[in-house]
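User: Run a structure prediction on this.
Assistant: Running it now.
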Amino acid sequence: TLNTLSLFGLVLAVGIVVDDAIVVVENVERNIAAGLNPREAARKSMDEVGAALIAIALVLSAVFVPSAFITGISGQFYRQFALTIAGATVISLTCSLTLSPALCALLLKPHDQQHHGRWWQRPFEIFFGGFNKGFDWIATNYGKLTARTVRIAGVMLIVYAGVLAFGFNEFRKTPVGFIPQVDAGYLITVVQLPPGASLDRTDAVNRRVVEKALKIPGILGAVNIVGFSGATFTNAPNSGAVFFVLAPFEERAKHPDQSAAAIQAKLFAQVASIQEALIVVVTPPPVRGVGNAGGFRMMIEDRAGRGPEALQAAAYAMMARAAKTPGLEHVFSLFETSTPQLYLDIDRTKAQLLGVNVQDVFSALQVYLGSSYVNDFNLFGRTFRVVAQADSQYRNTTRDVLNIRVRNASGETVPLGAFTTVRDISGPYRVPRYNLYPAAELDGNAATGYSQGQAIQIMEKLAAQTLPEGFGYEWTTLAFQQIRGRQHGDFCFRARGRVRVPGARRAIRKRNAAACGDSHRSNVSRRLDRRRGAARAGQQHPDASRLRRADRPCSEERHPDRRVCQANRGSGQRPLQGRGRSRAASVPAHPDDVAFVHLRRVAIGLGGGRGRGTAADARHSGFFRHDRRHRFRPDLHAGILCRLALDGGAGEKAGGACVAARGVTLC
């Protein structure tokens, strides 16, 4: 149950909280034994293990937090467990970083090697002294072994890969389960008589089932319901259900043969002698409200419209194959197409000649044979409901149906026998639909020694081999939740920390290409190479009228060892269009200069030395230093070249211009 999972998670959480504190205390004790006083030992210990404690908390959170995002019923089970562990991990980290070292500095005492206790303490000192020596010997040799192991990293990686492969293989062979079947304190018996059986026959069979079942030790009582199917929870005269209430758990715990599974097996043996009906004993669902019984339910779907008879044949073929397959038991289907029915064939031409509206015929059948709600009225302080229906003695035989009279257009009553005939047919009592397809339920359980996941796999294989063309299957109830939870769990735990948006990179490339006039992002690097080559050769840029030098004083430095001023590289200057409208600018001569070309007039905040950042100044272009040592990425360069990375912002700084690009300020 959820309470058990939460309690288990709480127990693990307590161990995790204590474990981090123990790491701190043991390390402080080790430093004290090395000769430090408690306060210095606590400070040094936190310097040594503080980062490790944070790493442990992050790793545990990364393992358990994704479980809280699993959807479906499995997510409901894992969410409490995951949040309990994650919360305890955070509490443990906080205590180990704050409270544990403070208490160690206050409570722990320096070691006194000359101290000897009283005479009655000598045996304890000898025992714990020997234990400490043995533990120190093991720790020393373990450290030596670890030091040797890390020197042969290749061998250890091979061993580690072997361990992973072995674990993966064992995990793959482990049977897959979902929610185990629990002893709910009651059992459900499904009774299905032949189609067309009356309620009296069903009641007689149910009473025999109850009489035999009450003789089994461990059954306290029974609730007999006639006309109600315990498997499908639908009404039918040939169906019955018996709910057996078991004795309290405290009484049955003393007798192993009185468990729910043992009593179920005894019930099967007792009711096997009743040949008048199909009787199946099922357990209640592990999760109340998810399904009508335990085990699995497969819905066989008629996706090609083959008809009820073909659907029944497909369902019964699956049931026959499952009965012969190991790993499955009690596989049954209550879908049938043999219920006796009366087909009323209306001659519409004759009815029209007699002036009878066909819709009035259907309304009369509904009122006389079925029922029709009229209204409610209050009398003697109570509310009574008025329902119109023919009396039972006037709707027992086929002749009674033909004697029902309908008023025609002239106001006269015409019996149905004047233009209708009745014949006997057989068909399904009900046709359930699943995903809009006519479907048949197929219920079953995993055999002893097999898991629910194995049973699902076996049924899927049988369906692939047995179902004819035009038929499919779907899972429902807990089997559906198990498959869905497994898929969502794989997605949750396989997700990476980096979010990838499909098509984002292609969209960026197209946008950059459209802005730069190129067909691909790789052309940006080619244009950079051409401009750098021209700078090395001392040639003027082909579009010099649209270039501007971002001057800055030679004395300003970003880093003592990283000068970004052009004069520090000894490059010359060539007259170009001025920074404003008349002053001369500098042509970049260093190969690492990056040219930025404005493609259209947009106010990006690139002003002159006087701090002008208007749209008029935005039409000018400039060179910005790209120094490899400043760790600017190529995609940032391409963004600058395409004018897409700039998000505005400028300011006057030491006579130069500042531009904010992707959170980085270029000056």
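Confidence is low (pLDDT under 50) at residues 495-522, 541-667.
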